[in-house]
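Z., the sequence and structure:
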Amino acid sequence: MTKDIKKVVLAYSGGLDTSVILRWLQDHYGAEVVTFTADLGQGEELEPARAKAEMMGIKKIFIEDLREEFVGDYVFPMFRANALYEGTYLLGTSIARPLIAKRQIEIAHETGADAVAHGATGKGNDQVRFELGYYACDPGIHVIAPWREWDLTSRTRLIDYAEKHQIPIPKDKRGEAPYSQDANLLHISSEGKVLEDPWTEADYDLILSRMVTPMAAPDQPTEITIDFEKGDPVAINGEKMSPATLLAKLNELGGANGIGILDIVENRFVGMKSRGVYETPGGTILFQARRAMESITLDRGAMHQKDELMPRYAELVYNGFWFAPEREMLQAAIDKASERVTGTVRMKLYKGNVMITGRKSPNSLYDEALVTFEEDQVYDQRDAQGFIKLNALRLMTLKRNGG
């Protein structure tokens, strides 16, 4: 134990884990604790976090609305890359961590704190994401990770500690300890309990909070349009919106139509597999709409190059390297390509599906005169013969020589 810690800034949600950590920091370090609660659009009232912190003797409490910064400066840049981790995960938890880490370090500087603390476990990805963010912003900061230090090595022991110290324990819809959940404007993740068995079917009635299942969605589709400017969405149905307002609206539309449920087993950075159920209604709509917008505005070479860069970009975000120079280098290339991505996409939302029905752009590279099946004066189909022969040359040479 480091004994000279005087003040710690704790990333504080007000939930069970961080409330236990708050008390543990006071008991084991004897340090003043400053709490920081970021409003990233998790969809719950944050004042109870303030009340709980006050009840536990905290004098300096930071509760900050970071929704616009989160969506505008983190989510939208990531979506310009069409980032998917392992082909499925839209990185909802991953992208929130660098912003929290950055602001936590800023608060440490503002309050004269000499340490920061988080509630991520020693088995998960978030410990890496938080701490890479901390060290990128302040290489000299001291980091306290209670799950790697204390003897509360299970959920049961954590609850016992909370009961002993009269810390309120949240309950799920059945009156039990809840799933481990993380929420922000982009998604809600649920892990733990029965989900630890990858064969056990998730109880969506118990888990889902932002959406209905596709089976329970309306029998009539919802038609919408999304306008894009230089790669980012700016309007829904012609109505201009701020980044956070727009994503919240897409969450509402997607959630009502059962869009964005994902049950996956992913490979954690620390080396193990984990299973989770994710709700990403607005992000799922946005991902499909962006791809449709790019399909008519990006040159084939640029589009395919972006697709080649995407897995590396997604892995960097997933592993916590948002502030790394290689992520910034990839971002510069992606943002350059996105300069053309302006226009409107029309789609129908129906029972878990996003169906693209139209796209248009002032920068469109789609040429009806070239692709028509009717007679045209632009394309001489006889030119294709030489094109094919040249591309077949190496294949024919290989075959003739016994390949």
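The CA atoms of residues 115 and 142 lie 5 Å apart. The chain has 13 helices and 14 strands.

Let me know what you think.
H.
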